[in-house]
């Protein structure tokens, strides 16, 4: 008996079923590819390997419909990888010896370095660290909390493979009065192991009431030095709102080409604290002296301003800075961003600098009033904006060697040894005085200034170590050479890393 032909509906169903299975299989392959690419990119990021470039889909020579589908699949994979959140590092599991509370003191960059040190101490002693408290009592009286400056969740997640960080003490410790103390400055890891760990084990909760410079520059195990860098350059990320405004400022500055940042630390608090009054009137000198005596924690009261200036311990005045910039060869149309708070003496004191370099800008000229309003009366947040612009600049020139100057210099070294001109203020004031006394011609002065700074532009070098004099030796965060490689290799590697 002859076989009956399949009815058309059945044949159609078989064809549709085959096509459906094929479509499902194709969709599964695309989905698998997306997941594989995403996991692969996260793996490359975790290992610090440059990300592979996704292939660009080329038109099929046959012009079939699968060619456009493949292009869409590749694009979808790239978009998924771009939008996916970063992979979390595996959590480090350890028995905690207790809780560490830290109350940071000082301005933004002093606190930033201190946070790096305290995380390192917590890791070394196997402690649980509570999100740091920021200074609200110093001259700046900024009420900002840690979360107003830094991305809290990123901070915790970035360090989960090193140390456990919590946002607050557990309830069972909330009514317990912690042991409060100030660690000895410039201490080695052995001090914390022998002196601090027994106290934490006994009291369970310890608060460090001061955190500035409490860890040595040198002599620490390499792993701890690298952890300090990891905290500073990876874990301490500013909040999205600060980053967005900082990026906008850099973008506006870049529209007209390169720019330099002048960290002109000629502010009232610095002059009062240091006792540097060169170029100030008698009335201004009296005002600065009164301010110095008004702050009991500023220990040095009687200061010889002239002697201190000749020792290179005073910030350059705006007028002195103008002479140095001209002598170094910066042209008149150089775009200069002034990173500072309110300059003591206001526009009058900046007049000489603006006359010689009229292309000067400040954050108030780059951002609208509405954009700046949330940051006003929050000097630490304003300093964070200056920090971002300073790190991104083509040249960074600080007029003194305070915390911002040092920490920014180190960050610029880390991102590829970008030029920071470290002014030799002791020799500069000698040259400036000789020039102003007409004992040097302009040409002689300019040549001397250039020669003086040929080796002071952030070239790769090792820190200067002075045993027993940690204040006099090179600061770890200004040149964390343990975390740096050859300049060329670092630039190539950092092309693929978002700092």
UniProtKB/TrEMBL annotation:
Report membrane topology. Answer: Single-pass type II membrane protein
The subcellular localization recorded is: Membrane
Please indicate if the UniProt record lists Transferase as a keyword. yes
Q: Name one GO cellular component term.
A: membrane
The transmembrane segments are 21-49
- One GO molecular-function annotation for this sequence? glycosyltransferase activity
Its pathway? Glycan metabolism
**Annotated family:** Belongs to the glycosyltransferase GT106 family.
Q: Which UniProt keywords apply?
A: Carbohydrate metabolism, Fucose metabolism, Glycoprotein, Glycosyltransferase, Membrane, Signal-anchor, Transferase, Transmembrane, Transmembrane helix
The organism named in the record is Urochloa decumbens
Q: Tell me where on the tree of life, at the top rank, the source sits.
A: Eukaryota
Q: What is this protein called?
A: O-fucosyltransferase family protein
GO biological process, alphabetically ordered: fucose metabolic process
The record's listing under InterPro entries reads: FucosylTrfase_pln, GDP-Fuc_O-FucTrfase
Q: Which PANTHER family does this chain map to? A: O-FUCOSYLTRANSFERASE FAMILY PROTEIN, OS02G0726500 PROTEIN-RELATED
* Pfam families membership: O-FucT (PF10250)
């Amino acid at each position: 008996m002859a076989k009956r032909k399949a009815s058309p509906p059945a044949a159609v169903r078989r064809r549709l079923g085959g096509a459906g299975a094929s479509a499902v299989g194709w969709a599964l392959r695309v989905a698998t590819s997306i997941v594989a690419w995403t996991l692969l990119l996260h793996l490359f990021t975790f290992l610090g390997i440059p990300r592979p470039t996704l292939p660009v889909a080329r038109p099929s020579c046959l012009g079939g419909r699968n060619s456009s589908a493949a292009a869409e699949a590749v694009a979808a994979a790239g978009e998924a990888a771009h939008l996916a959140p970063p992979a979390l590092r595996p959590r480090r599991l350890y028995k905690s010896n207790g809780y560490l509370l830290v109350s940071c003191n000082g301005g933004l960059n002093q606190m930033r370095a201190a946070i790096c040190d305290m995380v390192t101490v917590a890791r070394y002693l196997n402690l649980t660290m509570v999100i740091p408290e920021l200074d609200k009592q110093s001259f700046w009286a900024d009420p900002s909390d840690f979360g107003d400056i830094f991305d809290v969740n990123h901070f915790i997640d970035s360090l989960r493979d090193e140390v456990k960080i919590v946002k607050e003490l557990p309830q069972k410790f909330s009514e317990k009065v912690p042991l409060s103390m100030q660690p000895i400055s410039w201490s080695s890891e052995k001090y914390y192991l022998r002196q601090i760990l027994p106290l934490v084990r006994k009291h369970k909760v310890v608060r460090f009431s001061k955190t500035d410079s409490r860890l040595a520059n040198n002599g620490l195990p390499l792993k701890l030095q690298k952890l300090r860098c990891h905290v500073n350059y990876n874990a301490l990320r500013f909040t999205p709102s600060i980053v967005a405004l900082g990026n906008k400022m850099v973008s506006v500055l870049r529209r007209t080409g390169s720019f330099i940042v002048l960290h002109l630390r000629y502010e009232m608090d610095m002059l009062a604290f240091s006792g540097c009054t060169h170029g100030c009137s008698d009335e201004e000198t009296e005002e600065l002296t009164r301010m110095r005596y008004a702050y009991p924690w500023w220990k040095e009261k009687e200061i010889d301003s002239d002697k201190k200036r000749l020792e290179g311990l005073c910030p350059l005045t705006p007028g002195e800075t103008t002479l140095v910039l001209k002598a170094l060869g910066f042209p008149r149309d150089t775009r200069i961003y002034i990173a500072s708070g309110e300059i003591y003496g206001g526009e009058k004191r900046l007049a000489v600098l603006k006359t010689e370099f009229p292309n000067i800008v400040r954050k108030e000229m780059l951002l609208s009033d509405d954009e700046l309003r949330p940051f006003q009366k929050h000097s630490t947040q304003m300093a964070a904006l200056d920090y971002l612009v300073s790190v991104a600049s083509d040249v960074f020139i600080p007029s003194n060697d305070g915390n911002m100057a040092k920490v920014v210099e180190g960050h610029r070294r880390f991102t590829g040894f970008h030029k920071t001109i470290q002014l030799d203020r002791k020799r500069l004031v000698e040259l400036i005085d000789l020039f102003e006394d007409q004992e040097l011609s302009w040409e002689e002065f300019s040549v001397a200034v250039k020669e003086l700074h040929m080796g002071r532009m952030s070239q790769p070098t090792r820190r200067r170590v002075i045993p027993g004099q940690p204040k006099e030796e090179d600061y770890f965060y200004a040149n964390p050479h343990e975390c740096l490689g050859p300049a060329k290799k670092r630039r190539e590697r950092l092309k693929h890393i978002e700092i």
